[in-house]
Amino acid sequence: MTQETAQLIVDGKTYTLPVVESTTGERAIDIRSLRQQSGYITLDSGYMNTGSCQSTITYLDGDQGILRYRGYDIADLAANCVFIEVAYLLLTGELPTAKELDRFKYDMTRYALIHEDMIHFFDHFPPNSSPMSILSTMVGTLHDFYPEMDQEEDPYGGITTTTARLLSKVRTIAAFSYKKNIGHPLVYPRPDLSYCANFLNMMFDRPNMPYRVEPIAVIALNKLLILHADHEQNCSTSTVRLVGSAGVGLYPCISAGVNALWGPSHGGANVAVMRMLETIRRDGRDYDKYIAKAKDPNDPYRLTGFGHRVYKTYDPRAKLIKEICTAVLDTLQVDDPLLEIAQELEYRVSQDDYFVSRNLYPNVDFYSGIIYRALGIPTNMFTVMFALGRLPGWIAHWQEMNSDKDSSRIGRPRQVYRGLVNRPFVRLEDR
Ligand code: SDX
Fold this sequence. Notes:
The chain is mainly α. The chain contains 18 helices and six strands. The strands form two sheets. It has a three-stranded antiparallel beta sheet.
């Protein structure tokens, strides 16, 4: 098959650049030789048009609203799998057999505890510390408590001990940070509970009021974590890959990913959505006031939970999360006015040309918080839930980045310099 090429004509010269085709038909101009051939670099603030790597993990089509993990559609995975099956798929490329899943479940139980000395850390964070800053700190500290985890490589089907431990311990860290925050005794993981049921139990069980793990809550949490599990080269995943390209171990990279996800333009949006809906509720449901603010070019206010860098149609995850939302609230008989406000806001936005012309639809963060709230999870933990879901995706990309020479080259973008050129030095006494 002849190699397709692109030609760049600049300064009267023609440069030929290879074209790379994806397995789904998208094409890219490979500019890795551009500077060497022409002395030119490209400029693409925000990497709107730039591919940072070649990956086999997740595919999304922003125009069609398609999202697939390792070739499987997320609707199929959300309907038929539990979260740790999908985590296994992202990490190894294959869904686990029954035997492999049993081993993975066993390891989730085996590695669920954190070093008792780590628990003292929770006592020294200032009151009302952000659960995201606690999570990124504690994940980074795993490197010091489990130094052997960077070396231990006893993969079974591609899952290393390091990975299994991290997936299980981050769940415990998240639940323990909540219990410490509300001043309740820690609830330790139980060997008889599944990944999601254990998390809910560690969050909500109390010595004086035993928690009953609602089946719908476990079903909903599995689906939510599956729908958040990966999303190709988003900001936090690109952060994990970039930090990893410097040769940094898994834990510091994941800690960096947690910090990137924290941002209100990224995973922090699920917290901001609830605050926005609450504000609209308290303001007499004055939808038009907030829609007008979002449309005002002189006002930085945006309708959080709407819009996406890649999806220019309805985020397929938002569609599924909206369905889960209704099922959870109906089954748990939760009457949350914010659901009605969210649905009305979505309807009004869908009728407004400003949003329609810019392809601004609900994204993954728009309805997820309403479910977390119905499950009893506090708003300040919502982005931690996003991180819990995204963890296998981050790890899979870290592994993939390290897996070949090309993608593991240190990430070091260039720039267009716009500063002063060459200034003669002026001594202090002469200034
Ligand atoms: C996530 O990348 C991923 O995959 C991320 C994620 C994942 O799974 O990892 O999907 C998770 O981060 C979802 C996004 C969560 N963030 C929000 O909900 C915050 C609100 N959304 C916006 O900030 C914005 O839509 C972004 C950040 C999500 C995308 O920004 P872009 O791609 O840079 O788009 P843009 O800012 O260039 O917007 C294009 C136009 C602009 O208007 P004009 O300059 O053309 O007049 O749309 C407007 C924007 O002002 N616009 C909005 C808007 N989002 C974009 N106007 C009002 N409200 C909004 N929410």
